[in-house]
Amino acid sequence: MPDGEEVIVVLALKCGTIVEFGHPSMDSSFIQSLRTVVDDIGIVEELTDRIAYECDALSSLRAVPGVVVLPSNTDQLQDVVRLCHNAGVPFVARGNGTGLSGGARPEEDGVLIVLTRLNRILDVDPSNFRMTVQPGVTNLEISRRAAPFGLYYAPDPSSQQVCSIGGNVAENSGGAHCLKYGFTLHHVLGLEAVLPDGTLVHFGGPVLDTPGFDLVGSLVGSEGTLAIVTKVILRLLRVPESVRTLLAAFESIDSAGKAVSGIIAAGIVPAAAEMMDRLTIEAAEAAGSPGFPPAEAVLIVEVDGPEVEVDETFQCVEAICRDSGSSEVRVAGDAEERSRFWTGRKAAFAAMGRVSPDYYVQDGVIPRTRLPEVLQRIRSLEQSSGLRIGNVFHAGDGNLHPLICYDASVEGQSALAAEVGGEILRYCLEAGGSITGEHGVGADKVVHMAKMFSEVDLETMQFLRCAFDPTGICNPRKIFPTPRLCGEVPGPYRAHPVEQAGLAERF
Predict the structure, then answer these.
(1) Distance between CA atoms of residues 435 and 365, nearest Å
(2) What is the pLDDT of residue 189?
(3) Which 3 state secondary structure label does DSSP give 442?
(4) DSSP-assigned states of every residue in 388-399
């Protein structure tokens, strides 16, 4: 192929749609059209400014967007999407960029649509326990606005101070308290969204159940591949009458895991059950001095509900921790001490910067009963790879977050860290778990999807994706391991003739 010549693969889908793979570059007229839609601060064109948006919190996956737009209202967003649709230009939606799977990695020949200016709380309805917000509102701000009414928003990712609710919806985020209260999906009543052709649609509504298919459940966790959410109706909860929190130290992770199993086996569903190993404890202490005791593992358990019930349940939790071999149990004496426990836990990711120049966060799920086995395999992997691995996780539901430490300046370590992360995901699957709990697939775990799902499974998911986005321009190259399209004949991948001729390559 001659230098500089661009090959565009054109595919005709069975549904009659013509799709171009390898989108043409954006020309000056397209950029000018975007300028007419947004205000002066709503478009970023200079390369030095666009670089600021080249990745989300997974900094190892980078791409400088072709152009960045920041719409200030839904009408502007619709117009931007329509322009992309008409020109065949791919686009990616982004919130505050706290995602850990590369789900908001931009397209170099596409538009990055940043939703931070859509940050208004539209309605607070305490009588009906709900709030309506735009996608740029931060997670913690929702609870702050609900607090005067004795209400709060339950999902609480570690990044809740800065992460946006739009990103939470895209990734179906959970957090420390998802064991009892569930994930984002369980707290979303309705959505307003812009489809990839610019159409504004509504799914669900202000009540708990609405007629028809549950398309809210389809959008939550779709990682921005189906539509761009512009409005979210959230379910709020009443602040519990009583909250009790303890921190238990153990001389082994196995003992801490035994305590978690004992708590669940006793029929207790704590609001949270979080575990940290020695490395993450040391990092948290170095970063913020939360007062964690030196130990091989600490377990933070929180119980909430009616005061009488909480008092009885909490005594049982304390007894199980001591019977499981806890060397020390600290009970939070007041709200300040409770906050200090949680600040130490939620700062664990960021704190790892104190012990390693770079780290790679993985996210997998295993059955609770397999926790000791899988953690032992991770320790063996740490020894064989030479990379330190910190473990912090939602112990109550088996959601692991291994933190793989490496130095990107050392040749080969970045690739080794990715390889180690892939091995951990393999352990999770072999234990009967999943390759992701709450961080999503994004661009990071695309290569692992076929290990968990069959060809038929993946094709079925693609049918849904193509129903929303038949031209393949909405957050492309995410979730699925190949650029397979809804019109392809089911079965094993068949190379396009252009690919067979060596004029294009599969990615």
Answers:
(1) 7
(2) 97
(3) coil
(4) -EEEEEEGGGTE
Residue 208 has which token pair?
A: 């708990």
**Is residue 492 a contact partner of residue 455, using CB atoms and an 8 Å limit?**
yes
In tens, the pLDDT along 352-361 reads 988 899 999 9
Residues paired with residue 392 on neighbouring β-strands, in sequence order:
276, 401
d(CA 198, CA 305): 44
Amino acid identity of residue 309, one-letter, is E
Number of Cβ within a 10 Å radius of residue 458 = 17
Query: Which alpha helices (DSSP H) does 38-138 contain, by range?
Result: 47-50, 74-87
- Per DSSP, the residues of 58-81 read -TTS----SEEE--SSHHHHHHHH
Structural domains of the chain sorted by starting position, each given as residue range(s) with its CATH number in brackets:
1-90+98-106+445-507 (3.30.43.10), 121-238 (3.30.465.10), 242-349 (3.30.70.2190), 357-443 (3.30.70.2740)
- Residue 69 near residue 106, CB atoms below 8 Å: no
Q: Name the nearest CA neighbour of 250 among 183, 136, 328, 354.
A: 328
Indicate if the alpha-carbon torsion angle 201, 204, 206, 211 is positive or negative: positive
What is the DSSP annotation of 208-270? S--SS--HHHHHTTSTTSS-EEEEEEEE-EEPPSEEEEEEEEESSHHHHHHHHHHHHHTT---
- Taking the C-alpha atoms of residue 16 and residue 278, their distance in angstroms, rounded to an integer, is 58
Residues above pLDDT 70, as percent of the chain? 90
Q: Please name the residues in contact with 330: beta carbons below 8 A apart, sequence gap of 6 or more.
A: 246, 247, 248, 293
Give the N- to C-terminal CA distance of the chain in Å, as an integer: 18
What span, in angstroms and rounded, lies between the C-alpha atoms of 436 and 439? 6
**H or E stretch covering 235:** strand 228-235
Question: Using one digit for the tens of pLDDT, what is the confidence trace for 302-343?
Answer: 999 999 999 999 999 999 999 999 999 999 999 999 999 999
Cα dist from 434 to 34, 136, 429, 452, 474, whole Å: 41, 29, 6, 7, 25
- Tokens 């998802």 locate to 178
Angle, in degrees to the nearest 10, between helices 28-37 and 74-87? 160
For residue 380, give both structure tokens: 């063996």
